[in-house]
Amino acid sequence: MTALEVEKPLLEERPQPSQMVQEVCAGGEGGKLKEGKLTSQKAVERVIEEDQVAVKQSLPEEKLETAKDKRASAQKKLNDLLKSLASADPMPMEPPLKLSKPKARQKKPINLDIQDQDSELPQPDEPVIEPELLSATREVAESLGGDVAATESELLSTLRSHTVNGSNDGKSSIDWSDLFVGMKVERTQSKPAEALPRRRRHHQDPSAQRTIFGDGVPNKKSLPRTITRPDPRTLARVDIFGAECLGIFTGESSKVSKSAVPASSSLVVWEAARKRELQQCVYHPPDNSFTEMIQWTKQGKLWVFPIDNEVGLEEEKSVGFHEHVFLGHHLDGWCPQRGPIRHFMELVCTGLSKNPYMTVERKRAHLEWYKNYFKEKEELLKELGAIEATP
Amino acid sequence: NMAGTLLGRKPVKLLQRFLKSTFCHDVASSSQLSSEKIVIPNRIPRSPTAILEALASTVSRDSSGPHYKYHDDPYLTPGSNLSKRVFSLSKEAGRKAARWIRDENAAFFTHRPDDPFIEAFFPKMTYNEESNLSEETLRELIQKCSVSDAITVYQLSQSKGIELSDNVYQELLELVAYYNCEDPLDEDWVEERWYRQGVTAVRNTWKDNGLAEELFKSLSTKGSAAYGALIRGMAQYYQVDRAWQLYQECKEKNIPLDAGTYNSLIRVASFLRDSFDLRWQLVKELLTSMAESGVSPNLGTLNCTLEALSQVATWRQAKQLSLQVIAEFKSLGIQPCLATYYFLLTIHCRERGPISRILIDILDHIEGKQFEIEDPKDTFFFVTAMDVSRNHLQSLEVAQRVDKLLHTGNNYCLIGDSFKESIYYRHYFALACSTLIIEDFMEIYNDLVPHIYTPEPGVMEEVMKAISTHEAFEYLPQLWSDMIVFEHTSRDRLLSLVLSVLTKYQPSEENKQLTKQLATIAWDVWTRVQEQDETRHNKVSWNGLMIGDLLTTLVQCGEYDKSLIVMKEATTNAHKILGYIPVNALQILNNAAIEKEDAETCVSVAMYGLDAGHQETGEMVKQLQSKLNLSLEHQAKLSSAFGTELLNDSS
């Protein structure tokens, strides 16, 4: 039973120029149109253009009759709509638009009596038509030629009849509130009970409702946005993978020659650079010290996990521990079986086998050095009896 | 000790007995156990960072504290977007300075105790005439992607007459073609990359006749690799016409090209033709010649084709074609990545076009999956998906699904950069603000603000409007403190919005504390604007409406004395205030003054009202005369201003 529902069916049969005018009347001052970007000025121009077309079609003959017809049909439509209200399901969740109205009309006292729906609506004393619209109408009438005055009045009367519709909205400010109360309940499914009373806490008087909804015009923000758009779930599904194939690669001809050229890319450096840049895209300032350490590890600034004491010993990777530890066999062949030299060399081997800082290569070289050294001094050693003359 | 010796003697039997007693309660089955083999699982090879990654996955982002990168000190925790940026970049600037000093004074950094040697910690090698150069040096530099050094070494070896193999020429060509002869951002400068706006300009930035082309010419045999590298480089930097010329050359000379090269051409095909269908025709030609020459397409082909389609997204057939392309590649066994979905979104969800629910269908497909980066455009998906949820579908439910996907696994690293992240949250936030009731919205607010997201002034305005609509004044103190931290207090629009919200507040007995807080806010607004630096560039200037709101709030919240200070300033410095104080604010102050029997104020309010040309001033004076006993001085002042007629009339 609200103004809202009056407008809803009207808007469903779009692009009637006259309805566009109504939209302009409704939205001209309050704010943007549904489409958003159009200013009211532009919208008026558009409306006039469309009206022009409409009028042109009906111009040639019986201008007056058309005028009457139009008025009659407009009223008839309105009546039909009002009648259909009773049967139509109330749809409080889906008011079609933000319904701001020109301030001029809000200033006059709001008639709280709800009109008898079936009776004809009385014409308001002086429906307000914006001066811009007036002058635009005149221009249109002039551009059409013929009986300028008649055309103009015809256009204006059409406009007025819609202004009546428009002002009809303003009549039921209280209905508005009720409507939105309903919406609020819908919207706050989780906690409907506490949401509302808290809002009204500061307003014990019945006029509180008016403060909540400002001057009868609902604040855009208080409505869920989905109102202006259809619920996405009701839209047609897009089957992403269900379309027909293009048939370029899947066609018969291409399948034959597929194995002709190797697929792998030959641009090694290019691919490496691309990979590098890709990885950089996901390197972000680290979130915690673990991710920071991951980055450092990848940059080679940290020892890699799991840490053992062989990190970075690339040279020695293929060398077994036994080669480090068991060095005795290197003495075979040149070292005397007993005596001080043997004793000394065994100590050298023990020392080397415990040294983790030398590579096996160097240990061998070390032993080699002793071997050569003792060889050089062989004469002297024999003299001293450190080695037996005949082994 | 006993166990030790026993184990030493018969370890196997003991182990068996132990296993029996612990695992087999059933005696009958115990005899079978000895015959069962113990299967030792294969060693799972782990990457060097596997342990760290496992540890890191246990730590989630703590929204209640500042980001890890900031200094761990509440005093140094940034709040506003600007300070976040400044703090992070300053920290990095310090690192850069240190590195600069190190590189400038390389001679002092010769002590190398570390084993293994960590290259990142030592000064960069510089190359000059005296350096000992070889092909190997160049190759290493190419591997490290240090473009400028590689170019230097190349030029040095040219002048020294060092022989380089064709192989190195080819590698260097690929490198300079990829980076367009410029050094990439060092991988250490994480913050710079994070704050850099990742959107590169779509215009020709290719260095014509640069080193890449020189190298190309100097190659003795120009095969598909050489052509491929040059075409890819030109296409990547939008030197489209010449890339196309080279492609034609290849066709003439019958040089086969690889998939990557075709992809790069497909990506820029739209720049070569004008009308929608001609552009698509060209893409199709390229795809067909790919198929004919037996090059198997890859994920890059799919994404480049869709990118080409997204450039003609206003074309009526684009949507249908995009789905066909996806289906085609699906049948080839190529799985789409996030970039693919990003292009789908840009094609299907146009600002002016009809509403498409493709995002929901995409989400149905990829919900709960984890993604690795596969295409540079992968990082555009989340921000675009959130944009679509807010502006196209206007559905918080979808937005929440997108957000959930973003927080699945490691997907968050695909958010892109700080720019995309903040746009992502801006959309999410604004959508939540306009759809949720204020309590639920504030939950999100408290979760994200200030450490994850700092609302921009425009978003804060939306929040303020929501507060105003819901009359949820209890959140104002918190929001005002946040606005101070976010440095929003020097914005005219926000300040007047705050003041107008404050006027709606009706104090009552039960919320005295809130009344006091709101009065503090109003007074804070006043002092902040009054004390702002004279030399500031964008100074906030008072207007009549703001002063009126301020007066109303102060009077309503019981700060009558403070409102007098404001009124005094407004009368003495009226020239600093744009417009006049609206009459309802004056009336409120007047009524309060009458109640307090403050004739002085009443008279000055009346004088101000007269100056401002408010019609209702006469009424106010009458009221004042009937309710207060005015001194002679005040009487005289009023009568000189309003004329004796008015005064006599009332008495």
- Run of helices and strands of chain A: HHHHHHHHHHHHHHHHH
How many strand segments of chain B?
0
Helical proportion of chain A, percent range: 40-55%
Weakly predicted, low-confidence segments of chain B: 1-9
Low-confidence stretches of chain A: 1-41, 50-63, 88-97, 101-127, 163-227, 253-263
Shape designation of chain A: rod-shaped
Subcellular location (chain B): Mitochondrion
GO cellular component, one term (chain B): ribosome
Main location (chain B): mitochondrion
Family (chain B): Belongs to the mitochondrion-specific ribosomal protein mS39 family.
How would you describe this structure to a colleague?
The complex is a heterodimer of chains A (391) and B (651). By secondary structure, chain A is mainly α. Chain A has helices at residues 3-12, 17-27, 40-58, 63-87, 103-107, 131-144, 148-170, 173-187, 192-200, 208-212, 252-256, 268-281, 289-298, 321-325, 340-353, 360-376, 378-384. Chain A is rod-shaped. The termini of chain A are far apart. Chain B is mostly helical and 651 residues long. Chain B is 61% helix and 0% strand. Chain B contains 33 helices and no strands. Chain B has helices at 2-9, 11-23, 27-33, 50-56, 81-104, 135-143, 147-160, 166-179, 190-195, 211-218, 224-236, 240-253, 259-267, 276-292, 299-310, 318-331, 338-348, 358-366, 381-392, 396-406, 418-435, 438-448, 457-470, 476-485, 492-503, 512-530, 544-556, 560-572, 583-595, 599-612, 617-627, 632-642, 644-650. The longest helix of chain B has 24 residues, at 81-104. The radius of gyration of chain B is 37 Å and the shape is elongated. The N and C termini of chain B lie far apart (117 Å). Residues 1-9 of chain B have low confidence and may be disordered. At the A-B interface, α12 and α13 of A face α4, α8, α9, α11 and α14 of B.
